[in-house]
């Protein structure tokens, strides 16, 4: 939907990402794209660019493919719902989503193995509590600051996003394609 060199492309490049605030979002792309055409809506076809990866039993990536595709999301799961299925083993939630439970169970196993592989390569995991700031929008002030929940569903998404990003970075490097890397400095041992 965004053609290189267009005004839309230039504006998205300037923003770089969507910015989320407590009471609003400044989307990288216009709302018609970000919330509709480019958003996974259950039971509606969506154009996607797929990163398909195959892993062995230890979590090593064996192969990957990149291709344009059309997908149809079967449903929307929330982080809380996934936690109820995987951690709480809530029988009602597992029954309601029975068609995806086996996939979620496999995802936990793979995510654990991917995380172990990353740690063996020296990856750091800053699993620090994040603040969730609740605002009184009418008064324009902070009401409370609480610890945001981070559960197994967040970890699944993180691990698979990292795996996909690594596969894409390796592919683009092999193709000698221009790209931007986000590189963090070495951590200060004293800190």
Query: What is the end-to-end distance?
Result: 44 Å
The main β sheet shows up as:
2 strands, antiparallel
Net shape: globular
The overall pLDDT average reads: 89
Pick out the low-confidence regions. Answer: none
The number of helical elements comes to: 6
Order of secondary-structure elements: HEEHEEHHHEEH
Helix content: 25-40%
**What's the number of extended β-strand segments?**
6
Radius of gyration, in angstroms, nearest whole number: 19 Å
Strand order of the largest sheet: 1-2
Briefly note the structural class of the backbone. alpha+beta
Oligomeric description of these chains: single chain
Strand content: 15-25%
Task: Explain how this protein is built.
It contains six helices and six strands. 38% of the residues lie in helices and 21% in strands. The model has no long low-confidence stretch (mean pLDDT 89). It has a two-stranded antiparallel sheet. The chain has a two-stranded antiparallel sheet with strand order 3-4. A two-stranded antiparallel sheet has the order 5-6. With 191 residues, it is of the alpha+beta class.
Keywords:
two-stranded antiparallel ribbon; 6 helices; globular; alpha+beta; 191 residues; two-stranded antiparallel sheet
Topology:
Layout: H1 7-15, E1 19-20, E2 25-26, H2 31-37, E3 45-55, E4 61-72, H3 79-86, H4 91-96, H5 101-120, E5 131-136, E6 141-147, H6 152-174
